[in-house]
Write a structure and sequence with these properties.
It is built from 3 helices and no strands. It is mainly α. The chain starts with a helix and ends in a 10-residue tail after the last helix. This is Flagellar protein FlgN.
């Protein structure tokens, strides 16, 4: 019974990792199109998946103890490690793209802010006033 549960937990982990990988690939694609808003929405979904993976890891540790595992369980474990590597590599790429987008947004904000202050300064210093009959 324990073997079946352990196998089931590993299969469930693979499914969650596949969902995470799919989301990360989609996020990477969206960021390559500079659609950071939609990518961030997917990032929030990923947080939920990561929490589920953490909960599942705790369950797997409980079942893992010093049991002897079948060849199939060992193969599933190898698949889990492979998926973890893939997800980690994708997450690093997505993180770099998100940082780039964040820096671009900051740059755009500062440019807008500077233009707004400059415009305000020019309006006040150019002599536009009610006393000079300028509007």
């Amino acid at each position: 019974m324990k073997d079946i549960s352990y196998k089931h937990l590993l299969q469930k982990k693979i499914q969650l990792l596949n969902s995470l990988i799919t989301n990360l690939k989609r996020e990477e694609e969206l960021l390559s199109y500079r659609d950071a808003d939609t990518a961030v929405k997917i990032e929030f979904k990923n947080e939920t998946l990561v929490r589920k993976l953490e909960e599942l890891d705790a369950e797997i540790l409980e079942h893992q103890e010093l049991d002897v595992h079948t060849e199939e369980e060992i193969a599933l474990s190898e698949t889990v490690f492979s998926k973890l590597d893939e997800a980690r590599n994708l997450q690093q790429k997505v993180q770099e793209l998100l940082v780039f987008e964040m820096n671009e947004s900051k740059k755009e904000y500062w440019e807008f802010s500077i233009k707004r202050r400059l415009k305000s300064h020019l309006v006040f210093s150019s002599g536009l006033s009610w006393t000079k009959n300028y509007c």
